[in-house]
Amino acid sequence: MKHDHEDDINNHVYEFRVLHHLSQTELAQAVGVSKQTILVMEKGHYSPTLKLAFRLANFFEVDINDLFSYERN
């Protein structure tokens, strides 16, 4: 029997970026990724690796759970 899991990783990268008055390019450079990666992450089309998720949380000086949340459907 196949289980259809449509779990979601929600993020608040956009909100934290705007709060810190950063462009997508500035944030991307700060955490070592492309602007495109930030763009698709903010739109919810990309879930970052754990390494990148921790890098972002450390950059914003927040707990990773404040930046990302897991929703099991």
Automatic annotation (TrEMBL):
Keywords: DNA-binding
Superkingdom, taxonomy of origin: Bacteria
Annotated Pfam families: HTH_3
Residue ranges of every copy of the HTH cro/C1-type domain listed in the record: 13-67
InterPro entries, alphabetized: Cro/C1-type_HTH, Lambda_DNA-bd_dom_sf
Gene3D superfamilies in the cross-refs: lambda repressor-like DNA-binding domains
PANTHER family, per the entry: DNA-BIDING PHAGE PROTEIN, TRACRIPTIONAL REGULATORY PROTEIN-RELATED-RELATED
Protein name: Transcriptional regulator
